[in-house]
């Protein structure tokens, strides 16, 4: 059911950047076409250069033309383009924020409920908020004011806490919306509902029945032209600290008292704070890292390409050595009664044999074992590229003999006629609605950094050569060092047989 949205102005900082052009502006147009934007809603794009409103509207039209190749509804376009305004905010102008305040003060044009989307460099988050506060643009004495902070929120626990200190000089926690665009994905939101809206799953969702859980994000792509950024970040901070730990929280948290943002957040925080710290003195049993080397990556159409290795890509930018991981895997335990003793394996990698994001749950051995090594049941919740739920069960082979085979029950989440909603569309709508349930509370951010920081530091100190895996290959065999038992292994595919190595 659609929530009522107050008349508001969405202020987009960094409006001429790629995120705005490719995701935000087309996403807002789709929300308008779906009738989800309030009648009195205005978009004010803030950029560095001087651009007239007419030229900016022409630029917006170009963004929509590039995104919607098959055209779009002209009536919706006319309504949408009329919402769009532009404001120049050159960094060299000391009076820029006063000019922005003067512009926004025209209540006949701009509704005074203000939502700011900061699609800017992380170093600009705190200064922009301070400047907005100086001219009264985050004051909530008469209207609501919300600020969306793009990822990353800090680069470790101290920097995240320092950023929080700066922001809370001017903002209440309820005004801060820390985005993790993964949480806007419909298939990820479905994790919680799959658990709690089905009587057949929740009774089995514990250490009595589950052997282990795998949370995977693999890509066939390399680091591309982001070599300098990536080498300073690595897979652990880029993916595990944010997206995959949030996924784990949704998989493992207790049932919230209701679906209110406060209840959902409370259970996620409780879960993240229950993850056992990784023992650095036994790090090689709990964490594994590697880098891709030259290899061949196969495309979905059967074609492939030979690609260079990570260190060769760095060398082109003058970086001669690196221990930064492009493959990271962690073994995590949750210290609560539900999950006592159940390992959660979290992995992410670039240049793998396939690109996929999935949650795979292996159940314990069945009470009846007909043959040694009998297949164990799996439940897979696939996030992307295909949104689906798969169950693998044993069923009798028709005939005179007593024997079973594994069947895969495939439930596509997306069906013909369903809305296709981009994660940013969902999150922008939540921002305007005032629903922070899919945004990160500072306690979640701190718990996530607290968990990964010791591993990041230990890996940075250890300069020994990092294991190399061929681009286009499956998980390095050496990564099995983190498994709790010899019969555990990485699923390499969600398809039937994907548990066979």
TrEMBL record:
What is this enzyme's catalytic activity, as reactions?
Answer: D-glucose 6-phosphate + NADP(+) = 6-phospho-D-glucono-1,5-lactone + NADPH + H(+)
Q: Which Gene3D superfamilies match?
A: Dihydrodipicolinate Reductase, domain 2, NAD(P)-binding Rossmann-like Domain
Domain annotation Glucose-6-phosphate dehydrogenase C-terminal: ranges: 192-491
GO molecular function terms here?
Answer: glucose-6-phosphate dehydrogenase activity; NADP binding
Q: Which amino acids does the record list as binding substrate?
A: 181, 185, 219, 238, 350
Tell me the function of this protein: Catalyzes the oxidation of glucose 6-phosphate to 6-phosphogluconolactone.
Protein name, per record: Glucose-6-phosphate 1-dehydrogenase
Q: Which organism is it from?
A: Methylotenera oryzisoli
């Amino acid at each position: 059911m659609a929530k009522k949205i107050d008349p508001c102005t969405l202020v987009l900082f960094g409006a001429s950047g790629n995120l705005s052009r490719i995701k935000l502006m087309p996403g807002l147009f789709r929300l308008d076409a779906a009738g989800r934007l309030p009648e009195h809603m205005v978009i004010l794009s803030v950029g560095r250069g001087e651009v007239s409103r007419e030229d900016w509207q022409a630029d917006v039209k170009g963004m929509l033309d590039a995104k919607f190749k098959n055209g779009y509804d002209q009536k919706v376009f006319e309504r949408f383009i009329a919402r769009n305004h532009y404001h120049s905010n050159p960094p060299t102008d000391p009076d820029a924020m006063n000019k922005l305040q003067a512009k926004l003060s025209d209540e006949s044009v701009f509704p005074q409920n203000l939502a700011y989307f900061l699609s800017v460099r992380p170093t600009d988050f705190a200064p922009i908020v301070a400047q907005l506060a100086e001219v009264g643009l985050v004051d909530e004495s008469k209207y609501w004011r919300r600020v969306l902070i793009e990822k990353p929120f800090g680069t470790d626990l101290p920097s995240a806490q320092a950023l929080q200190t700066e922001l809370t000089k001017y903002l209440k926690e309820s005004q801060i919306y820390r985005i993790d665009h993964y949480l806007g994905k419909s298939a990820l939101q479905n994790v919680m509902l799959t658990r709690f809206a089905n009587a057949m799953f929740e009774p089995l969702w514990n250490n009595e029945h589950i052997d282990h859980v795998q949370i995977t994000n693999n890509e066939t792509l390399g680091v591309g032209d982001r070599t300098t950024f990536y080498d300073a970040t690595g897979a652990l901070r880029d993916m595990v600290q944010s997206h995959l730990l949030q996924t784990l929280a949704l998989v493992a948290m207790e049932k919230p008292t209701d679906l209110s943002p406060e209840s959902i957040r409370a259970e996620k925080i409780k879960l993240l704070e229950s993850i056992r710290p990784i023992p650095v003195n036994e790090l090689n049993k709990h964490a594994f890292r590697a880098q891709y080397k030259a290899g061949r990556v196969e495309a979905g159409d059967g074609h492939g390409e030979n690609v260079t290795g990570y260190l060769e890509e760095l060398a082109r930018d003058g970086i001669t050595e690196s221990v930064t991981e492009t493959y990271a895997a962690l073994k995590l335990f949750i210290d609560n009664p539900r999950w006592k003793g159940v390992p959660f394996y979290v992995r992410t990698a670039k240049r793998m044999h396939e690109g996929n994001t999935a949650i795979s749950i292996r159940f314990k051995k069945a009470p009846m074992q007909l043959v040694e090594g009998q297949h164990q049941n799996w439940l897979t919740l696939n996030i992307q590229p295909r949104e689906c739920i798969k169950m693998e069960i044993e069923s009798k082979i028709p005939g005179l003999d007593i024997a079973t085979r594994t069947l895969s029950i495939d439930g596509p989440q997306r069906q013909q006629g369903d809305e296709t909603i981009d994660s940013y569309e969902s999150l922008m709508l939540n921002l305007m609605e005032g629903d922070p349930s899919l945004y990160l509370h500072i306690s979640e951010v701190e718990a996530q950094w607290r968990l990964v920081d010791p591993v990041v530091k230990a890996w940075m100190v250890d300069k020994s050569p990092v294991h190399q895996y061929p681009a286009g290959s499956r998980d390095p065999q050496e990564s099995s060092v983190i498994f709790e038992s010899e019969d555990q292994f990485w699923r390499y595919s969600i398809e039937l047989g994907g548990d066979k190595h």
